[in-house]
Write a structure and sequence with these properties.
- This is DUF4123 domain-containing protein.
- It comes from Jannaschia pohangensis.
- Pfam families: DUF4123.
- InterPro entries: DUF4123 (IPR025391).
- The protein is of the alpha+beta class and 203 residues long.
- The protein has one domain.
- 31% of the residues lie in helices and 22% in strands.
- It has 8 helices and 9 strands.
- Strands 1-9-8-5-2-4-3 form a 7-stranded antiparallel β-sheet, sandwiched between helices.
- β6 and β7 form a beta hairpin.
- The radius of gyration is 16 Å and the shape is globular.
Length: 203
């Protein structure tokens, strides 16, 4: 970890044991995803357990991270559904990136937002689901530590789009153990669509 609190992710290599698990999604997508998004999580993430211990199942909340650059009206949509949400950026950055930056929303089970987000977002590449014991404010604080990454070779900061499904599928499982543990702290699982949407990748 560098002095600003963000891991230096550049150059991370994949492990022999990946902390990711793939679950087939067949039939009605909402029915297939409900246990992963709102029920007890499977115990199959052996690679993750070896890295950071078993995930807690105590009072897990369900969230979605959405990149507004891929769904510019997402703030209006979330407001319309009446769910609690926050932008990850704050201050002037939140205003500047209102239609481009990431949003974090708390999704109750059986809320209309759940149905719409699965129907519209699962195969569209703009949503990442996750389960966490943290409330919305604390989870936002956690994720804000990772909105930028530092490349020590070029001594440059870059925007880190960890909220993009392809990043959660490919980059996060390949992080060095210490960085992976820091990023997934207090997060029981990320539930990420595969490229085709026919599988859920649990990280």
């Amino acid at each position: 970890m560098n002095s600003a609190g963000s891991p230096s992710y550049v150059g991370a290599r994949a492990r022999l044991t990946s902390p990711a698990t793939r679950v087939p999604i067949t039939g009605d997508r909402k029915v297939a995803l409900r246990p992963l998004l709102f029920g007890p999580l499977p115990d199959a993430k052996a690679g993750r357990t070896a890295l950071r211990g078993p995930s807690t199942e105590t009072q897990l909340h369900t969230y979605i991270l959405v990149e507004a650059a891929r769904r510019p009206d997402i703030e209006v949509v979330l407001e319309g559904f009446g769910v609690d949400y926050v932008p990850l950026y704050q201050g002037k950055a939140a205003e500047e990136f209102a239609r481009h930056g990431p949003y974090l929303a708390l999704i109750p089970e059986d809320n209309r937002a759940m149905t719409w987000l699965i129907d519209e977002g699962w195969t569209s590449g703009w949503g990442v689901w996750l389960r966490s014991e943290l409330d919305l404010s604390r989870l936002r604080t956690h994720f804000r530590k990772f909105t930028q990454l530092y490349d020590p070779e070029s001594e440059t900061w870059f925007i880190f789009r960890f909220y993009a499904p392809e990043t959660l599928r490919r980059v996060i499982p390949a992080l060095p153990p210490a960085d992976f543990t820091a990023f997934t702290q207090n997060i029981a699982a990320f539930v990420v669509p595969s490229g085709s949407g026919t599988e859920a990748v649990l990280v």
